[in-house]
Amino acid sequence: MALGEEKAKNRRGIRGWLNPYHYNAERWAYMFQRVSGVAILLYVLGHLGDTSFFVGGPTGTGPSASSWKFIGSIFENSFGHLILILVTLILFFHGTNGIRLILTELGLIFKKPSAIEYPYRAKSLSSGQRYLIVVAIVVAALSALWAFLVLFEGMG
Amino acid sequence: MVQRFDPFRDEKPRLVEYAVPRREGMTVLDALLYARDYLDHSIGLRFSCRQASCGSCGMKINGRPRLACYTQVDELKVERVLAQPMDNFAIIKDLVTDLDSFFAKHKQMTPHLVRADTQEVEHPTAEFLMSPEELERVLQFTYCIKCGLCTSSCPTVATDSKFPGPQAMAQAYRYTVDVRDEGGDVRLEALDNPHGIWRCHFAGSCSAVCPKGVDPALGIQLLKRHVMGGKAPREQGEGAKAWKAQSPK
Amino acid sequence: MKESRLMLIQYGTAVAAVALVSVHLIMQGVIYPYSTAISFNNMLSIYQNGFYAIFLEALLVVVLVHGFNGVRIILHELRQSPPWTMWVDAGTVVAIVASVAYGTRTIILAIFGGVAG
Lengths: 156, 249, 117
Description:
heterotrimer; A: mainly alpha; 3 helical TM bundles of succinate and fumarate reductases; 6 helices; extended; C: mainly alpha; 5 helices; 86% helix
């Protein structure tokens, strides 16, 4: 067995997912999509837990005002609202970028392949779907602003 | 700086610095060859054509997969150039990587025309006709020089050893939509599995680093439609069915 | 199930999730002020609206199927040994069933459970 056999395998591993430095915008969007997806799932599981206190928690039997008030006392504060704003931000990015991915992965918004000339510009990395990354970022930012106004300014 | 690593002698890679006189128009390959010829004869380095035709000199240069012969030192705009072997390929020595699994995955895609009329294929009596428009559909994908840069840059290849990689899947598209081909169903079946085409998430790095404008990401996304539909653009002929029956899983 | 069918489900649940989550957020922050939306009495009245209960159940299923299938995909990419693949596939199904069951329990108890203090 070679001394450096493990290192020789040279697979980038999870750093390949999480480190898009030196690469294109779509790679950054991929990284954020993956991270936001996992984060949203974790939030949803927590949300299932906290909303179950409406019926008294894991051992409850029906709607309980006292149990609901208890869980509210834990999460309905500035820190909890900041978390909700962050969740809204990543949720809207994930959803909008996800729509972009559905359109691109089914080849629906690409130009047809054709003869290419130097300097080569990849059609898949076209401005069309790149604008959608910008749209996803803008939508996420606007949604976070909306969430702030709803949670902190009482808008609604 | 060059990453030096001999798996049979070293426990882990190390970076060694070589001072190379810079001249205008110098490529990274020129610099590496100077270092090898005048400073350290033991540098392991693979190259051939020196003109971005053969794909031999693929490596990671300043953190990004590039062809050494096609990357001018001046375009990097740095004082120090870092040359490392391509990610996601086993290292043989220093900058030389093992491409066996890469070629094996390419082969799994049945990268040739499959036709029913095998007699005509073996002993042609006329050309297989293709209109200019039909040729344009596949032309850019035929420019692949199998350098491996796309596979090196792919985030899925970084962890999934069963994933075919962008090069193989782009070639699968190239042959599947070729109007002369009748074996598309063979390729589509090979790709519709938990480690197949659906593990591509359009990170696009393959197309970003391709030196020949192949745009593998485009081919892969267009192929997904055919895989989703479960049907190649053309019916399998009898010869294609026979090929599928005898080809190993 | 073929991977292409699973991906069709993933895309379908993605689009459905975008729609249903948008409605959910509109209910929580636009139709009513947020503090009213999450008040006990408001929650009780909307849970007991059959349409909203069905909507919540649909949201639950769509989001959890999409989420856990996504994690399944990530875990498949991480390691490729047959035991790992088997456990990931089984674990995904168990996770979806368990979390949907827990969420459904909340909805059912909210509608049919007796109101406690």
